[in-house]
């Protein structure tokens, strides 16, 4: 009998379907990097809770990425998943203890409030299937406390990138700290690279107009393009 595969729960896009979510990309890249045998189960937003709730009886919120391990165990949250995969499949090393991971997170956390208007309507309008639109609009409207159209009108466009730019430029500087590059740890791939790749891919999936503005806000687009190119062998698997 064949050994069960790891199952990655991810959110589909409009056809042609390609992975787009920053958070699920982190886990997908870990699986690709470690060369693990897995399959993707695609869940629309309204399907996430009913699919996962039976396996997390003590939780109230249900999110992806979630994985089902070969032994039937379900694990939720990208970092928790990474820690467990590192424990069970230690090679190649994810370098979860790299100081770059927390440093990067602080900069991304600083950039995201400004960038939020650029994807709160972009994701449903450009990426999601219609079945997920109502869920997205309802939950994100509750989160920002106003209609999404108003939120985007007040904070989107040039204002968004101007606010995010100092943090994005700090990330650019971090990528340049090791002259050997192109990764945060020079020639060594680590988990923080997968977070940044997921972030970049999500904005690239939103369209060339958004992508170019994000790249320009980093202060050095070429650094980030070279970074993504160096991970291309891990990002090509994005639809199964």
Automatic annotation (TrEMBL):
Tell me yes or no: is Transferase among this UniProt entry's keywords: yes
- Xref: Gene3D superfamilies: 1.20.1050.10, Glutaredoxin (3.40.30.10)
Could you tell me what this protein is called?
Putative glutathione S-transferase
- Pfam families, per the entry: GST_C_7, GST_N_2
The lineage's top-level taxon is Eukaryota
**Keywords assigned by UniProt, alphabetized:** Transferase
InterPro entries, per the entry: Glutathione-S-Trfase_C_sf, Glutathione_S-Trfase_N, GST_UstS-like_C, Thioredoxin-like_sf
What's the source species for this entry?
Rosellinia necatrix
Q: What GO molecular functions are on record for this protein? A: transferase activity
Query: Which SUPFAM superfamilies does the protein's record reference?
Result: GST C-terminal domain-like, Thioredoxin-like
> For the GST N-terminal domain, which residue ranges apply?
11-93
Q: Does the keyword Transferase apply?
A: yes
């Amino acid at each position: 009998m064949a050994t069960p595969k790891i199952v990655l729960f991810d959110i589909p896009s409009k056809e042609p379907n390609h992975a787009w979510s920053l958070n699920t990309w982190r886990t997908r890249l870990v699986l690709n990097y470690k060369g693990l045998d897995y399959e993707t189960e695609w869940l629309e937003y309204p399907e996430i809770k009913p699919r996962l709730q039976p396996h997390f009886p003590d939780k109230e919120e249900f999110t992806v990425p979630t994985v089902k391990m070969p032994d039937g165990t379900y694990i939720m949250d990208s970092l928790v998943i990474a820690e467990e995969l590192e424990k069970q499949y230690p090679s190649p090393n994810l370098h979860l203890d790299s100081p770059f991971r927390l440093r990067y997170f602080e900069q991304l956390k600083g950039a995201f409030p400004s960038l939020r208007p650029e994807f709160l309507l972009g994701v449903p309008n450009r990426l999601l299937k219609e079945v997920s639109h109502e869920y997205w609009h309802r939950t994100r409207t509750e989160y920002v406390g106003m209609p999404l159209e108003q939120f985007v009108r007040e904070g989107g466009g040039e204002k968004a990138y101007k606010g995010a730019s100092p943090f994005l430029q700090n990330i650019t500087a971090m990528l340049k700290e090791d002259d050997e590059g192109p990764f945060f740890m020079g020639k060594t791939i680590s988990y923080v690279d997968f977070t940044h790749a997921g972030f970049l891919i999500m904005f690239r999936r939103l369209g060339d107009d958004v992508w170019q503005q994000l790249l320009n806000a980093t202060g050095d687009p070429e650094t980030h393009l070279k970074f993504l190119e160096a991970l291309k062998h891990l990002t090509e698997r994005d639809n199964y």
